Structure formats: structure tokens, C-alpha cells
Amino acid sequence: MTSEPPGMLRANLLDRMTAHGQRRRPPDNLLPMDVYDALAKARGRGRRVVLVTVLAVEGDAPSHPGAKLVVGEQGVLAGTLGCSEFDTAGVALAGEALEAGEPQRRREDFGGHGAERVIELFAEVHEPEPAVLVLGANPVARAVADLSRSVGRRVVLVAHGGDVAVGAGVEVRADDPARYLLAAAPGPHDAIVVSDHDAPWVDELLRVALASDAFYVGMLGSRRHAPMAVRRLRDSGVPEPHLARLRSPVGLDIGSRTAEEIALSIVAEIVAVERDRPGGSMRLDWNAT
To answer: Is 121 inside any structural domain?
Structure first.
């Protein structure tokens, strides 16, 4: 996900609410479920969003405690705080929350209408759903994508020519893998799996992936090929702390042979690393009990 210069995000969000001189806001008849649906869909598509909630209302304010507004980096996605003036204040607070990366609370006093109108707002940032980013398309890549999806992960498969042989729910992007990572930077809860150590783009991709915030970066490759890739990266100036993050050969040692078994070992390792577990057997030694 691309980021905007500090101080620009809030202004851009306000600009995006304006169309032909009028503030745009969702219809007043949206049900509360629409707000939560919009929130879930945005996170499921890898987007950061803010949920703005009215905590308190004073005076003749056309709102009520619990009114909600969902704001993304492109503007309002769902909900309303009661009127366009309140929505504008909510969008501004959402922009500050996105920039700060933490909740924001504010009391807004709207004068000039002959009566006191005050609302207290709370803005909370919701990060995207954790994703497994599978880069490249081959039988193992497809198996990793499908299995990751089956265990509840958001999955994005990126390949130059796209791919149509994946299961339902897998997002497919026809793009250069390295360019995609630069445009949609992985977060700290995302895992990256590079499926082709021989691809002409693999070195550039690994430089980007290893410099990212992803908690897991793995590359398919044998014990013979993996050191060759690391040597090329080291010779090109990639820092040692970045190289130390690369998991290759990738996956747990379960004797995998088929594409599906290799995928099982990879997804199991992703879960183990995420949960800070060694990934070994849980078997008890009955001779010691």
C-alpha cells in the first residue's frame, strides 16, 4: 500500500469528499450492518480503514451516540455521523488516525446555528487482514495459495501473466512481483512466499521483500540453489540482517514430495513463525512420564 507525505492524507480525504462543490456522504438509511460489512470488506481487500464513532452528543446536534462512519484512504466507505458537517469532522479525524497509526479522540463544537451542538468522536484504525503473498505461478505456488486460503488467510498470488488455476477466494494479480510489493507494501502480519528461485526477477524481488515489514519471507529452492541466491544478494550489497530473514529452503522438514505436501510444510512453517513456535513434534516421551 502506498503512503502519502505527512500532513497530506487528511487534506486529500477531505478533497475526495467534495464533488461539484458539495460534500458527499452515504444515504441516511444505511443499516449498522452496512458499516461493519464495509469495514470487513476493506480489510479483506488489504486496505487500512478507520471506524469513527460518536461517543456523546450535546445540544441540538443531528446525531446520536453510536453513529458510525467508515473511512478509507480514498474517502468515506459507509455510514454517517448525522450530517455532512459532522461527516467532514469525522473524515478529518480519520485522516489524523491513519497518519498516526493510533486511535484519536476529539470533542467537536459546532457553533453559528443559534444553539450549542457538540459531539465527541473516537477514531480507531483497523489494519488489513493478514495476508499470504505468493509470488510467481507454478504448482507449488497454487497449492500454497489454496491451502493458505483454506486455513483462513487472505491470499494474493502475483504473477506476470496472472493465473486462473487457483481456488475460490484467492486474489490474483497480473503484475511484476517486485513492482507489486513496492506498490502494496506488506505489513508486519503478512507472509511472503517466493515460488521460483530461477525467475529473472527473483533477485530484485528478494531485495524488496527482505527490506519489507513482512514477518516471514520464504523462497522455494534446494540446498544447492538457495546459497547461490544469497551469494548474489550479498554481492549486490544487501545487508546481512536482511539476508538473515530469508527462509530457504522453505518449509518444515516433513519429507514433502508432492506440490501439496510441500505447500503443507510451508503453510505450517508460516503459522509456526507467526505464533513463535519451533514447529517440532508435540509428542510426549512416555518413557519419561
So the answer is: yes
Residues of the chain with pLDDT under 70: 1-33, 112-114, 289
**pTM of the shown model:** 0.70
- Note the pLDDT tens digit of each residue in 172-209: 999 999 999 998 889 889 999 999 888 889 999 999 99
Q: CB-side exposure of 3: number of CA atoms within 13 Å?
A: 10
d(CA 67, CA 31): 11
| Grid cell digits, residue 212 | 519489507
Q: Which three cell numbers stand for residue 119?
A: 459531539
**Strand ranges for 175-278 from DSSP E:** 191-194, 216-219, 246-247
Q: What's the domain range around 88?
A: 8-126
Q: Which residues contact 108 (CB under 8 A, 6 or more apart)?
A: 86, 89, 118, 119, 120, 121
Same domain? 48 vs 156: no
